Amino acid sequence: MHSIAILVLAFVAVPAETREQIFSMIVESDPPPEATKAEPPMEMPGTIPDAPPPDAQIDFAAMQSSAPENVVGAIEPPSGLLNLDVNDGPGGMPGDLEFANGKGPGALKIKGGLGGRGSGDAKAALVKGYGGNEASEAAVATGLKWLATHQKADGSWSFDHTTKECMGSCTGPGSLKECDMGATSIALLAFLGGGHTHEVGSYQQTVRKAINYLLEHMKAAPEGGDLRGKVIANEGMYVQGIAGIAICEAHAMTKDRRLRRAAEAACNFIINSQDPKGGGWRYAPRQPGDTSVVGWQVMALKSAQAAKIRVPPIIFTGATHFLDTVSADDGANYGYDAKDQPGRPATTAVGLLCRMYLGWKRDNPALGRGVQFLSKTGPSGGDMYYNYYATQVLHHWGGEEWTKWNDVMRDMLVKRQTREGHAAGSWPPFGGHTGGSGGRLLDTCLSVMTLEVYYRHLPIYDRKKVQVDF
Prior knowledge:
By secondary structure, the chain is an all-alpha fold. The protein has one domain: Alpha/alpha barrel (Glycosyltransferase). It contains 16 helices and five strands. The chain has helices at 2-13, 16-28, 121-129, 134-149, 180-193, 204-216, 236-254, 257-271, 291-306, 313-325, 345-357, 365-377, 384-397, 399-416, 439-451, 453-456, and strands at 97-99, 108-110, 327-328, 333-334, 466-468. It has a three-stranded antiparallel β-sheet, with no helix packed on it. A two-stranded antiparallel sheet has the order 3-4. Strand 1 (97-99) and strand 2 form a beta hairpin. Helix 5 (180-193) runs antiparallel to helix 6. The N and C termini lie far apart (50 Å). The model is unreliable at 16-41, 43-57, 62-107 and 466-470 (pLDDT under 50).
């Protein structure tokens, strides 16, 4: 008792600043070994420092002409290192969801923006309520099975199907032969989209091995948070964005504290890779942006917010400015970059999805015109990249446009899936933006995630069926 009293008095005598540091270390420390699960812990790099500080001051030209709706208060360029606090800032994904009585598949409450991915009645209700069916769910299940059988021993996947795991039995390999970080990240997203994590679901070990692979290959100092792997040609920031989404989603779905530091570091790398003048992202850090790469970075940062990681609002201000520079018709259509003529279906789908997550409301006239453009264009039999993004836009939009789109998209994917042989459960390459480089693996992942749309992300605007707390 005397010893305890002495310690208490000593602690009171410690300056307030020092006490706060001690409390911080206690709160931030990992749980004791006896509080963890019996499963072997995921390996983390020795030290994951924050990304290097920006080397140029932010200069978003459009900030002077119009203030984005999603920015509150004064806009000031960040100075020095951007430190992300997991407990600070609002989330950016839909929060609790409840189907209103008589307006949907019944009274239903779902916790969290990614909570629809769980098993049981909630997931089944979302499938039924938004246009999925037994055939679409069976296609997802067999697609995940094919992906699991093609995971390499080290936990990774490859876009090149000449690997020993496939033994050349699946046609349509991608041309990217040294992009395993990208292949692993997109495959991991397909499992997470179906509700499978390293803690729950039918593929716990598959997911665990994939997460371990990403963490083991995250670059340490001085490039902390770098998930690009072997940077090949134009794939670098694509991989960073997709891997960032995967790590953030895994953390958001499990609350596994061992993933938080990696998620924060990955987001710091994305933040500090933003073009300091134009607000976009492209192949390498700080290059002038293009819409395709921007889409993955925006979704990575929004996934971070779903994991309760704070993202400085000015980063989204920059993304908004970039979208303004590549758009036409007040934002109804989008091109690839500032030199491109707006109106491509794929880049328009990417741009509109970004606008939805960056705060555009459903009654925005330009958003309505953009949705009508996608609806009239319809699903593509030759571009799965476009299908993946446009399906999300139409799902969030809802209404007759979604029903019409979904009936065609869902049945086309179910019918197109390979049903026999070693490739059963996968999809042959569609061509377009992904078929050549990513081949069968990439288009299989995109097809699976497209068929998971009913529960992968909760609808943003569907207030007739759901009540969403942002």
